[in-house]
Design a protein that fits this description.
Elements: H1 8-15, E1 23-30, E2 33-40, H2 43-49, E3 54-60, H3 73-85, E4 92-97, H4 107-112, H5 123-129, E5 137-143, H6 145-148, H7 152-163, E6 167-176, E7 185-189, H8 208-211, E8 215-225, H9 226-232, H10 240-247, E9 251-252, H11 257-276, H12 282-289
Parallel strand pairs: 4-5, 4-6, 6-8
Antiparallel strand pairs: 1-2, 2-3, 3-7, 7-8, 8-9
Helix pairs in contact: 3-11, 9-10
Length: 290
């Protein structure tokens, strides 16, 4: 069965246990969240899962649309995994990918707007705040090709050239295969991202190879491809190609997508901020970025 998904976990689930050569999977529960770490360790594994060699971490939490409280077990689980996958030291550029005018695609820009930027806090100002150990952080949104005329990778590459961060974190909305993972899952990886790949609109790759510094990618699935949904629900369709032609590029998203994006972007940003600045409590960080 052909299906579209950005989640390494779903690709592994589809392969089954017999086809996981070169892939190591570790699943466990932490802070009431389900965490799955997938290490793709060989070219064979990369070919099987359709992802570059590297680490992919999935954190499954309670639905974002029901998240009225941000400082909870979900935040703790996300913060711990972000802290594990990013470099321990060095400056960072956080880039929000996506289109603010399309709600399911607005996760990245909304998240970037809530990142605690510190690059401009230097010298006496830094000392006077009592936060001399702040990590240097900058953030921006790339926009989309149709509005800017520039690929996201070009925008990030230019920013990297001028700002010279030690690594980049990208945040983007993803596509899932299973509707149960919409707005309940966060995936992060250390291999970068190909924006739009899960919805059949692939743009240029954003990775260390293309921008010159390590790229950590973080995303939340917000849509399911319509044909993938039909096939995954066991419709018994004999002609998958005809089904994809009929549905075109139609995507399905929850009706509470506005609330889901608002809360998912806020929790994701808070987890990134807390992982980058462990000397600031989640409560204080929430105040600083509200």
């Amino acid at each position: 069965m052909n299906f579209r998904t950005d989640l390494a976990l779903e690709r592994c689930e589809f392969l089954g246990k017999k086809s996981l050569e070169g892939i190591e999977i570790d699943s466990f529960r932490a802070h009431k969240a389900k965490v799955t770490r997938i290490d793709v360790t060989s070219d064979v594994g990369a070919d099987s899962v359709g992802k570059p060699m590297g680490r992919y971490v999935t954190v499954e939490v309670s639905p974002f649309a029901k998240h009225a409280q941000f400082i909870d077990e979900s935040l703790s689980a996300l913060t711990e995994e972000v802290r594990r996958i990013i470099p321990r030291e060095g400056s960072v550029l956080v880039a929000g990918l996506g289109n603010t005018k399309i709600t399911p695609d607005a996760l990245g820009p909304k998240c970037a707007s809530m990142i605690f930027a510190t690059r401009h806090i230097t010298g006496e100002l830094l000392e006077s705040t009592g936060l001399s150990d702040l990590r240097c952080v900058s953030a921006f949104s790339t926009g989309v090709l149709g509005e800017t005329g520039a690929e996201s990778v070009e925008m990030i590459k230019g920013a990297v050239h001028m700002i010279k961060p030690d690594f980049v974190i990208t945040v983007d909305a993803l596509a899932a295969r299973n509707v149960g993972r919409l707005g309940t899952t966060v995936q992060m990886c250390n291999t970068g991202i190909v924006p739009g790949s899960g919805v059949g609109n692939s743009r240029q790759e954003i990775s260390e190879k293309t921008v010159g510094v390590p790229v950590i990618s973080i995303g939340v699935p917000t849509v399911v491809d319509a044909a993938t949904l039909v096939l995954d629900c066991g419709s018994g369709c004999d002609d998958e190609q005809a089904l994809y032609e009929q549905t075109g590029n139609m995507m399905v998203t929850p009706r509470e997508v506005d609330l889901m994006i608002e809360r998912a972007s806020k929790l994701t940003a808070l987890a990134i901020n807390c992982a980058l600045q462990p000397g600031i409590s989640p409560e204080d960080m929430l105040i600083l970025t509200s």
